[in-house]
Amino acid sequence: MEALTISFSLLFTFVLSLLPPLLDGIERKVRAKIQSRFGPPTFLQTWYDLFKLGVKELKIPLSGESAVFLVMLSLLVALMSLYAVVYVVLTLTNIDLIVLAMFLVLVVTSHSLGLVASATTSNPFALIGGYRSILLAVLNELGLIVGSFLSIFLGLKLATHYSVSTLATYLLSLAILFVATYVSSGRLPFDIHEAEPELASGILIEFSGKVLGFYIYSHLLIRYVLSLLVAVALISPLTLFFPSLLVAFLISLLLSTLLYIAYGVVATLLGRTRVDIGVRTLFIYYLIVLTVLVIFTWIGI
Length: 301
What we know:
The chain is mostly helical. It contains 10 helices and no strands. The N and C termini lie far apart (40 Å).
């Protein structure tokens, strides 16, 4: 049974690894429609862009050998994160908390490697963008870990032992998870490493060709993993209603696709703000929600 689960996880990981650039193409078309623009000519445009970058010569940035290594390592960890979340869905009714913890470590590691890669180049604009992203990540990763772990754990608890207090804390942990995954996806107004026009794409300024292609693909993979993570948290209280975990997996795929597009729509509706406002707003939000969560747990609501 374990070997069968691992085989299915590997197969689904391979199939799903092809999906993020397609979803990005759909998101770009939807955003263009909302903004009354024509947008990319086809949903496959992101795949075409990645292919064009992939056939260009390998150009290593000045003093950036470490950056290339870290980008490739980030891509590898992103693929491992995708495998881990697929495995979590296929074993949802009998989930191992250690596997869930390892999955969260992989997501945070992949995200962090991409940020550190930019800080290893000698370009001052890339350094500024990288440090801004690291500052935001230090604040947000805590919300991502707490929101992910609590929402899945409490969701599974709700499936067997319903109570008002569990439902209340589950909904609060979902509120944390939604915001944390949105911020980690690097969409407006939390793309602060690119939030200043003079930064010219900030952390990406030294990357080109294959390296830039691998960085973008790794970033899109993590975006999709985050959407799939929210989908897992949403279906966790309903696991007993599914005839099999394969059905739960297919429903989580549909939900993750809708969430990916929904995040893109939210980013279109939000404006760009000052760099410091994004961090301050996120800090106040986490402080309020976590305080309410602790109070609810303490008084047993």
